[in-house]
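Predict the holo structure. Ligand: copper (II) ion.
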Amino acid sequence: MRRKRFLIPTIAIALLAIAAFTLTPLSKLISDPANGTPVRGVTAVTVDSEAFDAPSIEVKAGTTVTWRFKHRDEGEPVAHNIKGEGWGSPDIQDGVYKHTFTKPGNYKYSCDLHFLMNGRVKVVI
Ligand SMILES: [Cu+2]
């Protein structure tokens, strides 16, 4: 009998939590690092964790951006990638990936191996 008294409030709280979570877009709960103010003067992005050290950069058209993959976990290299729309890298454990941006625009990208590992290159004239 005592168990039943707790069952209904527990179910109600669980339903409210589920409703709140599903009604709130995930993007509002967690901020996307790619949406930060683009930093100027950076053309090399380092990956040494599950994030880009400069997730949002601004470069001039014609600039080659380099991503350096240096992430180690207990001494072992960890694979990451760069996936943009129509451009990007394969999975890379160690080394660099370069891409030249010729046209102005907002180039968002992600590492599709890790949650919220996003970045953006804003290309200006
Ligand atoms: Cu990654």
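The chain has a mean pLDDT of 90. The two ends are 72 Å apart (CA to CA).
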